[in-house]
């Protein structure tokens, strides 16, 4: 059965049936149906619920409902010392723990106004870029699954396993690391670190190309994502999109470049944005493409860091960690480029306590997801799945 | 190393100067509706003292060619128990126009306070304001969708207020543990 045309929305439908008869349906009395998608729907990537008002297969409006994973991270923060908040930040974006830890530590370090040893900076950048690749692999793999491609998922998780093993070897945990501490690191890297990371980079480079061939250039995948959920650049900025979402709309904005932190200014890497040849700028395919290209850039960053990382005899990664962390009164908004966009921490210190007066986490997915209502208008239900997948949400971070 | 430190110091002060320049053009337009500029190095900010002007200030900040604060990075709710006030803190910057950043604070009374909503100026404020309401309980006048967002609709109290007491039971479930 093939639909040939529509006059007005569903008032008249022209359908060619399988035996080539053409049926014209006129003056259809259509009724809206409410379809609740989630919180246990596999394509909502966790516990997001979308209440869709549908007109046949077309979504008239989709309203996201969140909070199923809300733990009030910010309330915990007011009861905890600065260093003991670090493990909680892991549990926000559990796919990119290192990056979130880094953002939080940057904030407190700005308040404390302390200097970080160069070796620590290099290790921090290496682990966060490794974590970025791991996170993008999950995003790409699960996006494939959402659209019916199962094989890329297995490829992604196989490669991600190598990164998780590396990070486990460094920090002792596979996902919730508690590795980057305020003013330093929990441990120095093990002796063979450089060699094993270099091995991984050499191993993964061809695999990234293979993944591109398998998924990004797959015609079915392109047909499902090209032109779906287009977000113009100015609207994306108005919605404060960040990360691959904003770059997918053609805005070259990367905090590692535009508000540089740590040692990123010294490093040479590109900020990939779609050029409109392969995808329509701002569509789901662009967002996927940015993620896929970013992995190669991360490899470039890791290689440079491995080359330049200073070797220090008897290095103690905890040497410069302040004994008692009590910043002087003040406030700071510090952010870092996470795999999902800008993660920021607004931290207020009263100057007397070892606990923050206020610690607000600006979640990238929360902000990216807020455009869902506009993006979903008039889309088909299968396209809705493609759009949610391209936003790449982690509900732990959305709900905090 | 010394050179590096000095340079970092200069970059910092340059950033604050940029924020100051932005503040000056806002102050020139709105006069006493905005407070003095607070030039701290970590997060320079100013306060909106006339609540009714907040949306105008926001629009001016977004659209004026010298300012173009088109990106609302973060909007956080705040509780100021000593001053008996609630408030919001907006971190703004300009993508693709200027390198400046600034923070704006807006405060309202603690009991039944209301702040004009800026979700018509920056769409992203919509969910941020819902979150601030959910956690602190100030209302946002003119908000298109004024509901709780993270807590359930029928939750009592506003969790991030400093004097918050958690409810004993929620639908027969014991809450504190």
Task: Explain what this protein looks like in three dimensions.
The complex is a heterodimer of chains A (400) and B (177). Chain A is built from 15 helices and eleven strands. With 400 residues, chain A is an alpha+beta fold. Chain A has two domains: 64 residues, no CATH class; 327 residues, Cytochrome-c3 Hydrogenase, chain B (Orthogonal Bundle), CATH 1.10.645.10. In chain A, the strands form four sheets. A three-stranded antiparallel β-sheet of chain A has the order 1-2-3, with no helix packed on it. In chain A, strands 4-5-6 form a three-stranded antiparallel β-sheet. Chain A has a three-stranded antiparallel β-sheet with strand order 9-10-11. In chain A, helix 4 runs antiparallel to helix 5 and helix 11 packs parallel to helix 14. Chain B is α/β, with parallel strands linked by helices and 177 residues long. Chain B has one domain: NADH:ubiquinone oxidoreductase Nqo5 subunit (Beta Polymerase, domain 2). In chain B, 29% of the residues lie in helices and 27% in strands. Chain B is built from three helices and nine strands. In chain B, the strands form three sheets. In chain B, strands 1-2-5-4-3 form a five-stranded mixed β-sheet. Chain B has a two-stranded parallel ribbon with strand order 6-7. The longest helix of chain B has 29 residues. Chain B is elongated. The N and C termini of chain B lie far apart (51 Å). The N terminus of chain B is likely disordered. Classes of the chains: A alpha+beta (400), B alpha/beta (177). The interface between A and B is medium-sized, with 36 and 30 residues.
């Amino acid at each position: 059965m093939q639909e040939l045309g529509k006059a007005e929305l569903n008032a008249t439908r022209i359908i060619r049936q399988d035996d080539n008869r053409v049926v014209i349906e006129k003056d259809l009395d259509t009724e809206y149906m409410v379809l609740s998608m989630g919180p246990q729907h596999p394509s909502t990537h966790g516990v997001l619920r979308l209440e869709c008002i549908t007109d046949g297969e077309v979504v008239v409006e989709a309203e996201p409902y969140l909070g199923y994973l809300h733990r009030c991270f910010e309330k915990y923060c007011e009861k905890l010392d600065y260093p003991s908040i670090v493990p909680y930040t892991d549990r926000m974006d559990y796919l990119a723990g290192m990056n979130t830890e880094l953002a939080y530590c940057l904030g407190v370090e700005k308040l404390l106004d302390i200097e970080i040893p160069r070796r620590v900076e290099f290790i921090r950048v290496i682990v966060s870029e490794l974590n970025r690749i791991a996170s993008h692999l999950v995003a790409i793999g699960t996006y494939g699954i959402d659209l019916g491609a199962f094989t890329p998922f297995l490829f992604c998780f196989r490669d991600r396993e190598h990164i998780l093993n590396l990070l486990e070897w460094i920090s002792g945990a596979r996902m919730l690391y508690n590795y980057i501490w305020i003013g330093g690191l929990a441990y120095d890297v093990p002796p063979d670190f450089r060699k094993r990371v270099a091995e991984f980079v050499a191993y993964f480079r061809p695999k990234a190309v293979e993944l591109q061939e398998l998924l990004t250039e797959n015609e079915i995948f392109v047909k499902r994502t090209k032109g779906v959920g287009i977000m113009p650049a100015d609207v994306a900025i108005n919605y404060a999109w960040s990360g691959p979402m904003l770059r997918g709309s053609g805005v070259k904005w990367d905090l590692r470049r535009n508000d540089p932190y740590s040692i990123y200014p010294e490093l040479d890497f590109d900020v990939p944005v779609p050029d409109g040849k392969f995808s329509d700028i701002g569509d789901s395919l662009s967002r996927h493409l940015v993620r896929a290209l970013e992995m190669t850039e991360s490899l470039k960053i890791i290689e440079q860091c491995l080359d330049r990382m200073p070797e220090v005899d008897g290095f103690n990664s905890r040497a410069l960690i302040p004994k008692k962390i009590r910043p002087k009164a003040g406030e700071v908004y510090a952010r870092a480029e996470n795999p999902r966009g800008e993660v920021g921490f607004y931290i207020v210190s009263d100057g007397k306590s070892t606990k923050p007066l206020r610690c607000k986490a600006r979640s990238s997915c929360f902000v990216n997801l807020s455009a869902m209502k506009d993006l979903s208008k008039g889309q088909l239900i299968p396209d809705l799945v493609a759009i949610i997948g391209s936003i790449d949400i982690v509900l732990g971070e959305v709900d905090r | 190393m010394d050179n590096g430190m000095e340079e970092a110091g200069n970059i910092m002060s340059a950033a604050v100067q940029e924020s100051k320049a932005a503040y000056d053009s806002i102050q020139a337009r709105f006069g006493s509706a905005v407070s003095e500029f607070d030039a701290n190095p970590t997060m320079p900010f100013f306060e909106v003292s006339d609540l009714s002007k907040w949306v105008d200030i926001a629009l001016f900040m977004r659209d004026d060619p010298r300012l173009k604060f088109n990106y609302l990075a973060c909007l956080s709710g705040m509780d100021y128990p000593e001053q008996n006030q609630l408030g919001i803190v907006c971190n703004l910057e300009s993508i693709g126009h200027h390198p400046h950043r600034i923070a704006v604070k807006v405060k309202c009374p603690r009991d039944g306070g209301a702040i004009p909503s800026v979700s018509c100026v920056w769409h992203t404020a919509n969910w941020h304001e819902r979150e601030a309401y959910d956690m602190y309980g100030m209302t946002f006048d003119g908000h298109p969708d004024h509901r709780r967002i993270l807590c359930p609709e029928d939750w009592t109290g506003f969790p991030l207020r400093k004097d918050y007491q958690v409810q004993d039971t929620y639908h027969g479930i014991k809450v504190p543990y």
